[in-house]
Amino acid sequence: MERRAAGTSPSPNARNITGVPPGTQTYSVTVTYSNGAKLSRSTTVTVNCKTGEETPATQLTAYPNPANTQTTVAFTALQPQNMTLIVYDVMGKEVAVLFNDTAEENTVYELVFDTAPLPSGTYYAVLRSENG
What we know:
The chain is mostly beta strands and 132 residues long.
């Protein structure tokens, strides 16, 4: 099933998505160029949101998505707190720890993730805070 959502673009390769229902959402991006060519590699990022609770980050983005050799995963903390950002494969195996430290309030963290050595497929970036 394809679901479309409204979004804005802070940079040519990033999207902020709005109008997404609470819960776990997975986003895949298909890029079609003006000449009709399509990008065939896929990396998927999952963003977890809890209903009625303040989430530990104002946004979690990955760009470019899908990625070929690397992607930048970015987030902004709402308050100073210990946070981890871990990437998992579809089998739940940890493939990378991108962040494991105290995040400062209103600081944008942009973490480059080298995807070149990984096989094509779906990967999940999970952002956790000490507050849940």
